[in-house]
protein adenylyltransferase (Methanobacterium veterum), 107 residues
Amino acid sequence: MGQEGVKELNDFLHNLKINFSPNLILLFGSRARNEYLKESDYDFIIVSEKFEGVHFLKRIEQVLLFWTINQDVDILPYTPEEFEKKKHEIGIVKEALKHGVVVASKS
């Protein structure tokens, strides 16, 4: 990723912090493992209280408003309660916690 890409990624994370006050932003997948190709997508889990009462697909839509990088992205937006439940289940969230990189956290 070039300098422009780094700036766009930082802008994206900054906008998430301002608009969603996330408890956690976790990068996972090939980019977190540093095993990505130039065309690899980004994978993020975002945990925010601001997702309360918002349909899951609408949350993704809201987050994507701030994505300006010319690369695919997968967003998994959870409320803190949903995340607490998911992290104990077998699946993506549990794996992401094992191998992902925390890029922002309230704690």
